[in-house]
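Table S7 (text form). Paired inputs.
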Amino acid sequence: MSQSGLFITFEGIDGSGKSTQTRLLADHLRNNGRDVILTREPGGSEGAEDIRKLLLEGATDRWSAETELLLFMAARRDHLERMINPAVEAGQIVICDRFVDSTRMYQGLSRGDLRQAVDMLHNLMIGKEPDLTVRIDLNPEVGLKRALSRGGEEERFEAFGVNLQAKMRQGFLALAEEFSDRFLIVDGNRTVEEIASDVRSHVDAALQ
């Protein structure tokens, strides 16, 4: 993989430390001479960032799970066309904070019984799975407390409470078994540096 692009995603419940770890991994790879694009979902492209505001701000009942799914897919398609695919094809490493696995959990399992619809739309409109997915596993109560302590306007999903986060955690563990060829589960109940060291070692091995 060292001469070609690589698509790495980070997944986990809210407050699990994904965003911090994506930045640390990007810094590590850049320090080792790799060309890295750091991005996020929903968002990552101009159109997708506009949709992000619609999804993450406002009341919990602003959208149904079905409407959320369509909005996420629209944002992801724009992100894929304008950033992810061109970067990977150019040999860059793309590190993305969330991707389709979050949709499989939030809309496919936790917010609605839509997993079949998620996979159908993903296959039809996206058609891309990550090369490696880092799943940071953390106690749902700890994660939610961290997420809410950040403040800000993007707390629509956190407002659903700890039950949603607990259901998400179990769902992600099941998803890691389903896609075991690309999932790496990392213990999030450690220091930031311990987690980062674990992630670095696995990614460096994948790039050999």
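Next pair, protein 2 of 2.
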Amino acid sequence: MTATQAAASIGPMVKEFIAGAVRAKAEGKQKLAYTFIVCHHEEILRALDVLPVWTENFAGVCGAKRDSERFLQRAESLGLSRSLCTYALCGIGFDQWREEQGQMPPEAPWGGMPKPDFMVSTGQILCDPRAKWYQASQQYMPDVPIYNMDLPYPLFERDRDHREVWGYYQKYIAKELRA
């Protein structure tokens, strides 16, 4: 597969991912969990028959389809600053609108993002809003629990030898995943 072919396959793949989450919610056969890309626990969720819903992907689709402004404005109307991460703002604005209406916002890109059964938040030092995004969305979905999973991400310190603490990291991560 060429790079161009690989790039062309991304849109349909993400579209089916979003549509699949909407179908799963409508059918009620599978639990849905909001989570982030690079979450390191996707396989565990899937083994538990939980479908991960990557909220950043939906915000990216909204931006690519030039349909994020209404969700960003919604988040701003809630008192959130446009200087915050627009992925988070788009998701928060979307969640609030969906919950206020009791249904998907009109003409939501690719069918919209279904309400999760629970949210798994991880900070991982990849993106600052990750630790707070779902807490903000939970204001509009108080019946949706959040589990904040603290997964250390020592790989950012590439010039450090982590072998001396690797056992600690393994035990810590196993404890977080079991919880």
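The chain has a mean pLDDT of 88.
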